[in-house]
Amino acid sequence: MSKHSKGMKLGTIAIHGGPQPDPRFGAVNVPIYQSSTFAFENAEDGAAKFKGERSGYIYTRIGNPTINALEEVAAELEGGCCSVALSSGMGAMSTLCFAVLKQGDHVVATHSLYGPSRLFIEKHMSRYGVTSTFLDTSDVQAVKDAIRPETKMIYIETPANPTMLVSDIQALAQVAHEAGAILVVDNTFASPILQRPLSLGADIVLHSVTKFINGHSDVVGGLLIAKDKEWGKKLRMAMKAVGTNMDPHQAYLVVRGIKTLKIRVLAAQENAKRMARLLDEHPAVEWVKYPGLDSHPQKDLVDKQMDGPGSLIAFELKGGYEAGKKLLDNIQIPVLAVSLGGVESLIQHPASMTHASMNHEERLSAGITDGLIRFSVGIEDGDDLIEDMRRVLDMLV
Ligand SMILES: Cc1ncc(COP(=O)(O)O)c(C=O)c1O
Asked: 243-257: per-residue pLDDT in tens?
């Protein structure tokens, strides 16, 4: 914990967390140590660093001061002991599986995971003898029933992508621990500003840094944050072995993006609350799923485990996918693109885009209907976003 942010709130940690100012020359922003390798003082110094008897940097795949600055601030924000920064969210996913799983192990995971995350466990880990069960993890009893003696990991996304289903982190941590497994939470949708899974009993948090953490749609990156040192060490060993480390320049941009994390997340959330109300009341809309609406099936749980409902909305128009296509082609401000959590609003169609890697039946059983539209509300002026959406919805009635 940096001397500046000890005991401080998240908005302050985001700005002053980690080794800031830089210990070498007092640079207020973390310098980009764009070097693949680091010189030893002498032969004895090199040997001691390799043995782990002396701290210091050796080689950027193993560790780097700019990347380390990001890892420290991320661990502080999530309330973890330590973290590793990875080349992408999927780099985080593969590193996690490499660190946690072995042949014969079983995973229980949310059915509506981000498509490639599900594909990774279901199609790739299965080649190494890992089995998996995907189900609605908002149903704690269903998760308990799916546990087997060989279950090693419960992996959840909450809120889930793109169904907005919310799973009970505290209850699932207990289920996992009673079974001798760990609970891993993909906290990409909420960010630590709205939800801190480690404080609710989870063992590891995963982020696609590409989203809210960086926040400017200009970096692809990932993070794994561990509650305890034991898991922290295993994750770093896996990262070193698989070579999924982040690059120093990437890390610099993310540290810069994190400084505004709190105001971005809260501003987007305010816009999303207004947008969800508009969609909920408009006659062109069939249904809306947003954790901030009273109609959300886990509203009480949202209020209990989250500090706010966030800025992701799922909805379907009365005319299904055909009407959805018209909306995507006529809306002016949100960018028609995958990804989420940037300053700009992003809108997309999961069945043909982010979740196209799942087959039709898998998507339907996970609640991803053909007409579902996912809207990541940005921080543009809320009046403009509302006017733009109202204009298109009125056109579709
Ligand atoms: C919830 C979630 N987790 C993980 C990922 C994978 O992250 P990346 O695209 O940075 O590899 C994504 C990407 O969209 C995501 O939405």
From this structure: 999 999 999 999 999
- Residue spans of the domains in the chain: they are 10-258, 261-396
- Contact by Cβ (8 Å): 236, 184: no
Q: Which CATH class is domain 10-258?
A: alpha beta
User: Residue 1 above 60 pLDDT?
Assistant: no
Taking only the tens place, the pLDDT of each residue in 83-129 is: 999 999 999 999 999 999 999 999 999 999 999 999 999 999 999 99
- Work out the percent of the chain whose per-residue pLDDT is above 70: 99
Extract the tokens encoding 300: 């009480």
Residue keyed to tokens 């009407």: 323
For residue 5, the model assigns a pLDDT of 66
What is the structure's pLDDT at 71? 98
Query: Considering the entire predicted model, what is its pTM?
Result: 0.96
* Helices and strands (DSSP H and E) totals, the chain: 15, 12
Long-range CB pairs of 359-364 (<8 Å, 24+ gap) are 362/111, 362/134
CA of residue 91 relative to chain centroid, distance: 12
Strand partners, 182: 153
Three-point CA angle 363, 367, 368, nearest 5°: 50
Give the active site residues.
61, 114, 186, 211
* Residue of 113, 117, 216 to mutate, ligand 1, most atoms within 8 A of C-beta: 117
95 ligand 1 Cβ < 6 A: no
Each residue's pLDDT tens digit, 160-192: 988 899 999 999 999 999 999 999 999 999 999
Atom number in ligand 1 closest to CA 117: 4
Contacts of 128 (CB under 8 A, 6+ apart): 101, 103
Tokens of 324: 């959805």
Name which CATH class applies to 261-396.
Answer: alpha beta
The 3-state secondary structure of 146-205, one letter per residue: HCCCCEEEEEEECCCCCCCCCCCHHHHHHHHHHCCCEEEEECCCCHHHHCCHHHHCCCEE
